[in-house]
Specification:
By secondary structure, the protein is mainly α. It has one domain. The chain has 9 helices and no strands. It starts with 5 loop residues before the first helix and ends with a helix. The model has no long low-confidence stretch (mean pLDDT 91).
Length: 155
């Protein structure tokens, strides 16, 4: 276990405090409970058109966690401290991951969501080291959790 500084703990608490902002909390709830992944930008634009509430939720959640991932990836908060206290950025990455290659191509932005991708990979390595097979168990859990949301959305 590495030595965690008081500043790192304070920053972690600040990030958690920001998550409690009502609009972001609403967006996070929608993302976890109702956002169903899509595989193409066309499907995305149909399901979550720009200017719509759902598109706003998606952008709020992904941009928040991309920012947090940038902070963690630069070592401003100890990985282990962070990984012990949240799994949400991994969930966000798992749900948006199918879209990323198309978005990177569409926007000519090969680094789009790269911070979140890198953080999610490190989280998986951390979890697997402590509990081999745990990542697949998590994926299966979220696949099952997504089924009611997909049915409610008429898929």
């Amino acid at each position: 276990m590495s030595e965690v500084t008081h500043q790192q703990a304070e920053l972690l608490l600040k990030l958690y405090d920001l998550r409690r902002e009502p609009r972001l909390r609403q967006a996070r709830a929608w993302y976890v409970e109702k956002f169903t992944p899509v595989t193409s930008p066309e499907e995305f634009m149909t399901k979550y058109p720009p200017g719509g509430e759902e598109s706003t939720h998606l952008r709020m959640v992904t941009s928040y966690w991309e920012m947090v991932a940038s902070i963690i990836n630069r070592g401003l908060i100890d990985d282990e401290l962070f990984f012990e206290n949240t799994g949400e950025p991994w969930v966000v990455w798992e749900k948006v991951k199918p879209l990323i290659p198309a978005w990177r191509e569409m926007f000519k932005s090969p680094g789009m969501m790269a911070n979140l991708e890198k953080l999610a990979a490190r989280m998986e390595a951390y979890w697997e080291k402590r509990g081999p097979g745990s990542v697949e168990v998590r994926r299966e859990f979220f696949r099952r959790m997504a089924q009611p949301a997909a049915k409610a959305a008429g898929e």
